[in-house]
Amino acid sequence: MEAELLNIFDENKKQVGVATREEVHRIGHWHEVFHCWFVSREEGRDFIYLQLRSERKKDYPNLLDITAAGHLLADETVQDGVREIQEEVGIEVAFEEVVPLGILDYCIVNEKMIDKEFAHIFLYEYDGTFNDFRLQKEEVAGMMRATFDDFCELWLGTKEEIRVTGFTINAYEEKTWVDTYVGKNSFVTHDGSYYQHVIRLIGEQLRK
Questions:
Q1: How far apart are CA 186 and CA 173, in angstroms?
Q2: Model pLDDT, residue 192
Q3: Which residues of 185-195 are buried (b: 16+ CB within 10 A; e: fewer)?
Q4: How far apart are CA 123 and CA 162, in angstroms?
Q5: Please, what is the Cα angle at 107 between 63 and 158, to 5 degrees?
Q6: CA 100 – CA 10 distance, rounded (Å)
Q7: CA distance 124 to 182
Q8: What angle is formed at CA 187 by the lines to CA 154 and CA 44, rounded to 5 degrees?
Q9: Is the pLDDT of residue 122 over 90?
């Protein structure tokens, strides 16, 4: 995976070359990623879906994250990004079915990497159940959901913990059903402004 080739860009989104994923994160090149958030509505309430990253992941293991996301490879277009949904969570989605929410530029710097991303963010209205997910166990260890209102309150600072329900899988892909409470420390440390930005964009779509 570290040898995957990614397009790299300057801060004005002009492509300036190609580099391996390892180099991209070591040096801090701007690159493109695909983010897709699932939402659903039941009995008048909106829910948002969160993947639990596998303990095998090099970065951010065992943390909650975007429903499905990944890097766009050097030979891929944004439209090709929907492959991440199929690969990670086993739901087949056509590009025409996702709603574009725009591109967000953001950067995370820690002791392991400099991650400068142009994130193409999308929304998908999911009408299935937890049983429809087929998780890529090397990447994803579970699927959870929270009410969108709770998710907003957590990231806007009015709640310390929120309830999530869903399931985890083990090495044999056996499910354990989960009903628990989590705080911000249970999530991938995207910049706080990222979550606030996503909340605003999703909220605008849900109100339409």
A1: 22
A2: 65
A3: ebbbebeeebb
A4: 22
A5: 55
A6: 23
A7: 24
A8: 45
A9: yes
> What CA–CA distance (Å, rounded) separates 164 from 5?
36
Number of independent structural domains in the chain: 1
The pair of three-digit structure tokens given for residue 135, joined into one six-digit string = 């998780």
Which residue type occupies 189?
T
What's the sign of the alpha-carbon dihedral 19, 114, 68, 62? positive
Tokens for 157, please give them. Answer: 């600072």
Give me the helix-helix angle, 192-206 and 148-155, nearest 10°: 150
Q: Which domain holds residue 59?
A: 5-206
Q: Is 128 helix (H, G, I), strand (E, B) or coil?
A: coil
DSSP H helices in the chain:
21-23, 83-89, 148-155, 192-206
Q: How far is CA 159 from CA 9, 149, 150, 156, in A?
A: 38, 10, 8, 8
Structure pTM? 0.95
Average pLDDT, integer, range 138-160: 97
Burial of residue 173 (CB within 10 Å: 0-12, 13-18, 19+) is: exposed
User: Residue 177: is it exposed, middle or buried by C-beta count within 10 angstroms (0-12/13-18/19+)?
Assistant: exposed
Domain at 57, CATH number: 3.90.79.10
